[in-house]
Structures are given as structure tokens and as C-alpha cells.
Amino acid sequence: MKELIEVIAKSLVTLPDEVVVTETEKEDTIVIELKVASTDMGKVIGKQGRIAKAIRCVLKAASTQEEKKVVLEIV
Question: What dihedral do alpha carbons 49, 4, 8, 60 form, nearest 10°?
């Protein structure tokens, strides 16, 4: 999951070296934190959050194989 989010985020931003993805596992939930440069924040979120919603949708589809809930937090 971490690698998937990293590839998607790096393809969207202008400063791909600033992209940091961390994955934390708690009981039945996986929390993925995505950190990007402040100048690239708008590119990752998109207008009215459409890109962020699309990333979460792809993540949800990819997580169906695991029996855990996956949460994406954009920091």
C-alpha cells in the first residue's frame, strides 16, 4: 500500500523528493500518512478534494485483498 501511494503522489507533484509516506498498523486498521511540500499540497488534494478522493478510492480497491481498513491522511 505504501509503495502505491508513493508512486501516485510522486507522479502528481513538482517536488517528488519531498514526498514522504509512512505506514502505521493498528489492530484492524492501516493508517498511511502522506506528506508533501506545502507548494504541492493543492496538487495532491485537487479542486474540492477530487484527487484526494480518487487516491482514497484506488487505495480502497487495492486493500480489498487484506482484511483491514486502510485510511489515508494527507499531512
Answer: -20
pTM of the model: 0.89
Find, among 75, 69, 70, the residue nearest to 20 by Cα: 75
Q: For the beta carbon of residue 34, count every other beta carbon within 10 angstroms.
A: 20
pLDDT in tens, 32-69: 999 999 999 999 999 999 999 999 999 999 888 888 89
H or E stretch including 70? strand 69-74
Domain span at residue 15 reads 2-74
- Taking CA 48 as the corner, what is the angle to CA 37 and CA 3, rounded to the nearest 5 degrees? 45
Looking only at the bridges linking them, the beta strands covering 20-26 and 29-35 are antiparallel
| Residue spans of beta strands (DSSP E) within 7-65 | 20-26, 29-35
CATH code of the domain containing 14: 3.30.300.20
